[in-house]
Specification:
By secondary structure, the protein is mainly beta. 0% of the residues lie in helices and 49% in strands. It starts with 16 loop residues before the first strand and ends with a strand.
Length: 111
């Protein structure tokens, strides 16, 4: 008020897992995107509803780094790159471990 500081608050960052899912109708796939902003691996249990069948395997695309301060540069343009692999053990319910500071995209057939 009138140029004087009334209150000064520092809000600590809450480390968390955020996720969103949707359908790629053209590919017949469910797409799950999960973000782990924490410094430790996050163990998550996923439950899929609203579909009749979910594939047992899918495609995992993951982007992660050893530090949240890491970035690509002209000297190291591939320091952080997406890595694709096959993910098994999928179904209407499955478990996933999300590495620290990562985004994971899971694409699985669903109808």
């Amino acid at each position: 008020l009138d140029g004087k500081l009334v209150n000064d608050v520092t809000v600590s960052r809450t480390e968390t897992v955020l996720a969103v899912a949707g359908r790629d109708e053209g590919a017949g796939e469910l797409v799950i995107k999960a973000l782990n902003t924490g410094s430790e691996t996050a163990a998550v249990d996923v439950s899929i509803t609203g579909v009749r069948q979910v594939g047992a395997e899918g495609k995992l695309i993951r982007l992660t780094s050893a530090s949240p301060a890491d970035e690509n540069s002209f000297d190291q343009p591939r320091r952080i790159v997406p890595v694709s692999s096959t993910m098994s053990g999928l179904g209407p319910r499955f478990h996933a471990d999300l590495p620290p500071w990562s985004i994971s995209v899971i694409r699985v057939a669903a109808r």
